[in-house]
Amino acid sequence: MTPTVAEGTAGTARHPAPMALYEDADLLVLNKLSGLLCVPGRGPDKQDCLSARAQLHWPGALIVHRLDQATSGLVLMARHADAQRRLSLAFEQRQVHKRYLAVVQGLVAEPPGIWADIHLPIAADWERRPLRIIDALQGKPSHTRWRTLAHNTAAGTTRVELEPVTGRTHQLRVHLAALGHPILGDALYADAATQAQAPRLLLHAGELALTHPATGQAMRWDLAADF
To answer: Which one from 26, 45, 68, 135 is the annotated catalytic residue?
Structure first.
């Protein structure tokens, strides 16, 4: 079941209300824009973020998971502490289904529609934080499912769908770069030419599905990418 879009409270010019695809007494499903932090960062210039904007319009809203600042798409928030605990547990137990859309450099050899698996362990690159690296000795097991959607032979790029099984920091970006297909616009893991091919990171969280923590109802939301 895909619930109808709900309208958030009208925002102010300085703190616009995030677009809410769904809201009830227990949870929110919001659209995070590329370039917006999920939670506050260090310093006064990094206090504007999705969670702060949400709390202005849905007091008490609590973060459950995060997207990278450069990534756009669906973010789930809880309306109270008990819902946050239940939803966080669902993420921990891999009971939340997520899919992403990306455009990558190069023409991926796999034929469209066939799912493949990436199993490459990811570790922090302590000397170049916040970067991550593939590290067979120190890395944590990391699993991504992915498939080709379409090739753009003129541009030399491929549109892909991604399904993270584990949830490591920068996992999708690191895994695709390790395969030789960095995401367009990726300022961390792509070369200068690939970065310059897009004005933003072309990675979008477009599908989210879970069991409602209070009602037990199966819920699903879809949000098209703007690229």
So the answer is: 68
Yes or no: say if 139 and 123 are a contact pair by the CB < 8 Å rule.
yes
Question: What are 135-157's pLDDT values in tens digits?
Answer: 999 999 999 999 999 999 999 99
Rounded Cα gap, residues 186 and 198, in angstroms: 9
Query: In degrees, to the nearest 5, what angle opens at C-alpha 208 toward C-alphas 122 and 146?
Result: 45
pTM value is 0.92
Q: Identify whether 82 is a catalytic site residue.
A: no
The rounded distance, in Å, linking the Cα atoms of 159 and 163 is 14
Q: How many CB atoms lie within 10 A of CB 61?
A: 25
Can you tell me the distance from the alpha carbon of 92 to that of 86, in angstroms, rounded to the nearest whole number? 10
Which residues touch 44 (CB under 8 Å, ≥6 apart)? none
